[in-house]
Amino acid sequence: MSTTALPPSLVPTLGGAYYVDPEIFAKEQEKVFEAMWVCAVRAADLERPGAFRTVQVGRESVIVSRSRKGEIRAFFNVCRHRGAKLCTAESGVAERNFQCPYHAWTYDLDGKLVAAPNLTKMPDIDRVEYGLRRIAVREWLGYVWVCLAEQPPSFEATVMQDVIDRLGELDSVDHYTIGELAPGRRIVYDVKANWKLIIENFMECYHCATIHPELTEVLPEFADGYAAQYFVGHGAEFGEGVEGFTIDGSAGLDRLPAVSEEQDRRYYAITVRPLVFINLVPDHVIFHRMFPLAADRTMVECDWLYLPGVVESGRDLSRSVELFHRVNQQDFEACERCQPAMSSRMYKDGGVLVPSEAHIGEFHAWLTTALEA
Ligand code: FES
Ligand code: FE
């Protein structure tokens, strides 16, 4: 942190090392991503028994799949024999079993070891004990959340509480029926920046006037750098004459039926620690999941979710998708512009936060506490 005294209106940021140092990143993997609930996949992506996706959570590759009975399961993607990576594909359908490509140990969809060459010569092997190691799962908002910790923290007190802290109550998010919506579009961004730069950017709107001309047309109060999500329950209001949350302010799609009068014509943004952002607008939900791969690289998977009837009808979603896609591009470009400077000697002690970014300081305090735990 800075050695020169800061004026009272400014708060220091984290030092540059937090964004580039592989040791700090390794600590974040262990103490944050592998210790907390992380949003892994959209449940509906696993349509039928055997469907799976592999995702990176901290240092681990994780298989998320659907069992024969239709339940969601998650396993470490590590063969119990000699450790080969079991599923190498990003997604697919295991017809009946997962079979290791090395010596063909075979596991059923519940992870139990069911076959292996010469298995009869090993009568004492416990097929559950030597089955795939399970990971805790939870389904919420139509997504599968996983936690690698032996003793997962309370989902309610962490993930759900973050949403309550932003919106005041869970009821308000229920109005958007996120779990029942259908993906109209998914875009995956490969961002060459540290995950915290992406979060910090999402948490503030000080940059909106400079880099988001289209967004500030739709949400004029953002032009003042007013951080809407800082205030509990405060949604940013659409500008006069704006018909919908679209690239040109033209009418959007069908409004989600349970969205209240108060929520209509408003935009809400929620950060769910550590790796999720949710944006709520009257006719759709934009759901971001981040997958940090290295200190300077983060994959961001973003879903645009609409009423199933809207998606099925084949109506044109392009103006709707384009607004936040452009915002994403503008934001990620800004993050990528900051990343190389994080290792500058000039930024060793970090920078400063202005008053409207004060809650980023709270995020830093939360993170450093988690890393020390
Ligand atoms: Fe998987 Fe040998 S490592 S069967
Ligand atoms: Fe932005």
The total beta strand count reads 18
CATH H-level name of the largest domain... which superfamily?
A: Naphthalene 1,2-dioxygenase Alpha Subunit, Chain A, domain 1
Number of domains: 2
Architecture of the largest domain, CATH level 2? Alpha-Beta Complex
Structural class: alpha+beta
The CATH topology of the largest domain is Naphthalene 1,2-dioxygenase Alpha Subunit, Chain A, domain 1
Which residues form runs of ≥5 with pLDDT under 50? none
- Percent in helix: 10-25%
- Rg on CA atoms, Å: 22 Å
Shape: globular
Succession of helices and strands: EHEEEEEEEEEEHHEHHHEEEEEHHEH
Report the portion of residues in β strands: 25-35%
| Major beta sheet summary | 6 strands, antiparallel
Can you list the strand order of the major beta sheet? 12-17-16-15-14-13
Query: Averaged pLDDT, please?
Result: 94
The small molecules bound here are: FE2/S2 (inorganic) cluster, fe (iii) ion
Report, as a whole number of angstroms, the end-to-end distance: 20 Å
* Count of discrete alpha- or pi-helical segments spanning 4 or more residues: 9
| Name of the level-1 CATH class of the largest domain | Alpha Beta
